[in-house]
Amino acid sequence: MPPTLDTLPAELLAHILQYADIYNPDATPFHPLQCLAATTHCLRDAAEEVSRLMLNKHAKLTKFPRTVIYRAKWLRWLNTSCWFCKKTSQRKAIFQDEERGPTCCAKCDRAQFPKMTMTEAIANHGLSKLDLFTPNRLLDLPTLTNGEYFVMGNFSTMLSKPDVLARKAYIHGLLGEKAKDEGYLRRRAAAHERIIKHMNARVQHGRVHERTSFIDPVDTSKTTASMRTPEGRANYVTEHLRRERAALGM
Known about the structure:
- By secondary structure, the chain is mostly helical.
- Helix content is 46%, strand content 10%.
- It has helices at residues 10-17, 32-37, 41-62, 70-80, 106-112, 118-125, 129-132, 161-175, 182-198, 230-247, and strands at residues 115-117, 146-151, 154-160, 201-204, 207-210.
- The strands form two sheets. A three-stranded antiparallel sheet has the order 1-3-2. A two-stranded antiparallel sheet has the order 4-5.
- The radius of gyration is 40 Å and the shape is rod-shaped.
């Protein structure tokens, strides 16, 4: 007795059914697979299995590859990884722009960008705010690399250590022998503070900013004579800047 479709081995039956005009959309609903499935339970199961296999094969051939936007992944990595040690971090380097600067953990920030506080630069290196935060009315020099970070409820100003040392060498070179006298350097820094006060200025974002408005004290008896009037403040600043320039040999 010759074999029938439902008596063939499953592998052979599946191979035969793959030629059943499977890609002809006009054959639906009288497609050979549909007709076989309506014949017996065995052939229905075979038609289902072949259809499943062909569907998986077709899906693998025509599926679009997963789209990976490498630009987004790269930018995400730049914003969430330290550029130097590659560890996870979202902290920006102090000396860089907060929005566009490199991501840098605190340890690498200290190692890659040596820095010191403004207080340390003044106390340990014999410099003043007018020496450090330029250009200003005393010194027309380039701005030192600086940055601010928030600590204990206040902003602390940080300065590049190499820049501070270079500025120290320049200023002390102009002062000559006077730079060896620590007492003179302290008095000089204090004198510069008084000049800044008479200028109605403050250090902000690495610069000495002079404010245009000045509220005159109500009780002038408690202020120095030079601070009582705008003319007195202007004369004080002019005279003492002249003295400081002379001390620098300018």
